[in-house]
Design brief:
alpha+beta; two-stranded parallel sheet; about 10% helix; 6 strands; two-stranded antiparallel sheet; 2 helices; globular
């Protein structure tokens, strides 16, 4: 995944569910990684792939803000059932 300019952090990512292909545009949290995302298409609970910190890095079109800025210390958030999160296609 391509990192963005540190002065410009992308907060919107498009998540694609690997189970059903449902696509959703979501706003990412700026201070934490999101471990879970409930697909609004099929209800699958998405979790990060091995080596990724969050669902945006695994299934989104844009990596999470901490990864975009190379922040090494990130906090996990488990905002399940949130309509503000998006899956990425793999």
């Amino acid at each position: 995944m391509k990192k963005t300019d540190e002065n410009r952090i992308e907060l919107t990512s498009v998540l694609t569910c690997p189970e059903c292909g449902h696509v959703s545009t979501e706003t990412m949290p700026t201070d934490a990684c999101q471990y879970f995302y409930d697909c609004t298409g099929c209800g699958a609970v998405l979790r990060p792939l091995p080596g990724d910190c969050c669902v945006y890095c695994s299934y989104g079109t844009v990596p999470c803000p901490p990864v975009q800025t190379d922040t090494k210390t990130v906090t996990a958030t488990s905002s399940r059932n949130s309509q503000d999160r998006i899956p990425r296609k793999i």
